[in-house]
Structure formats: structure tokens, C-alpha cells
Amino acid sequence: MTDSDADIREIIFDTLRNALPRPVALTEQTHIVDDLGLDSVAVMDFVMEIEDRLDLSVPLDKIAEIETLGDLLTVLRDLKAHV
To answer: Both ends of the chain: CA-CA distance in Å?
Structure first.
């Protein structure tokens, strides 16, 4: 099962690269709404795809706290540690 930071980071970035209409430079500081222009529905779709790939569920209260790709990485890493 995938659980290293590098593996989770690659899943996040790969999922976004496939979902975005145009190429965008991605870093852990990339702001999901401001930099990528994702609306709430797109964010939920994006998170659901990552949940499927990692076989876990991100609670809605955690999703609301996520602003950057680094925040998402931290939440996913913490959830994987408790599975």
C-alpha cells in the first residue's frame, strides 16, 4: 500500500495534471482555489479521485481546512498513518 510522502505527493500531482485543462507548475505551496482556479465541485471531484487511489476517506471538516497542496499532503499522510 502506498504511504510515503513522495508516493502520496505524486498521486496528488498526477491526479491534478490529468484533471486540469492546461499544464500548471505544481508545488506544495500551490493554492488549490487561487492558483488552480478549482471551484468547490472540482475540489470534491479531485479529492474523491485521490481517496479512491489511496483507499481512504477524507472527512469533510478536513477538506474545509485544506488550502494548499501541502495541506492536502499533510492530511492524507496523517489519515494513512491511522489506517
So the answer is: 11
**What is this structure's pTM?**
0.88
- Name the residue range of residue 72's domain: 5-81
CA–centroid distance for 59 within its chain: 13
How many domains does the chain divide into? Answer: 1
Q: Show the CA angle centred on residue 69, arms to residues 44 and 71, nearest 5°.
A: 90
Q: What is the structure's pLDDT at 81? A: 87
Q: Which cell goes with 82? A: 491511522
CATH number at residue 71: 1.10.1200.10
Cell numbers for 17: 495534471
Is 45 within 8 Å of 19 (Cβ atoms)? yes
Which of 49, 41, 61 is closest to 17 using CA atoms? 49
